[in-house]
Amino acid sequence: MERTTNNLDWTLNGEPKIRDGRYGPVFLAMDTKTGQLLSAEQLEFDRATLEAAVSQLAQKFVVDSDGHNLIRYLGCHTKGEHTYLVAEHVNGSSLTEMIRSYGPIPAHLVRSIVRSLLTGLDWLHAHGSYTKVLLDPDYIFVDQQGAAKIDIPVLDPVVAGCLPLPASLALPELGLGQGGPQKANVWLLGVVVAHMLSGEAKLAVDYTSAASLGAGLISCPGSAVGMVLPEHVVKLLLEEPLAFDFVRKCLTVKVAGRPGISKLQTHAFLSAS
């Protein structure tokens, strides 16, 4: 179900930004009717881009993410001289920040996060307006109870001038000309799981290495786990056979042979104790 939020009454916290977002600095805000904390991302665009972005947002409906593990957006609103993209606030940190701060994430918590991500991806892939979402650990947020939510890009990256996710440049789909975002997100989920279990926040370090890797994957016959992940990360994953099998299947090069979201939801790794 989707709904608009033109009647939102909110106030902006005067404190410094809480983080950097896709489109500009993010500040804490509050719904003055309910007291619910919100996030307000200041859109730092030139005038022409801002007008295009606001026009695009005006045509979108808010994601009603209850039960879908997605951050819910509450629309585009102006305060003073600035325009903000307002969303629900997650009292926690991004998955990337979590890994940088704490290192490897325990397997039981990884399973919980992955189940949440699969629920969110399953919902997104069923809604045509959001099929271009690519999973990015910088925009997966984990709250203080360990629950994960996906922060989806609600602006067209061309309009917003956003660079693509480096890991997405290594997607075999780019070289093979196959598949859509559903299977691309399965590939990226495998990389995200490797991030969490290894405690390494960045595995594809830059655009050049990611693009070079993507070109080399075209001739790979099966899983690219040994090409995508460093040797020491592969050895670490092998200590958890079910986790290794999950990642290995996610990193299947041929799109037709890569499992779908529903198949992964029943993988033995997610039900292990």
From TrEMBL:
Membrane-crossing residue ranges in chain numbering: none
Record-linked SMART domains: S_TKc (SM00220)
A Pfam family this chain is assigned to: Pkinase
Protein kinase domain: residues covered: 12-270
PROSITE patterns: PROTEIN_KINASE_DOM
Keywords: ATP-binding, Kinase, Nucleotide-binding, Transferase
Gene3D superfamilies: Transferase(Phosphotransferase) domain 1
One term of GO molecular function: ATP binding
EC number: 2.7.11.24
EC supergroup of this enzyme: transferase
SUPFAM superfamilies per the UniProt record, alphabetical: Protein kinase-like (PK-like)
Enzymatic reactions: L-threonyl-[protein] + ATP = O-phospho-L-threonyl-[protein] + ADP + H(+); L-seryl-[protein] + ATP = O-phospho-L-seryl-[protein] + ADP + H(+)
Domain of life from the UniProt record: Eukaryota
Name the UniProt record assigns to this protein: mitogen-activated protein kinase
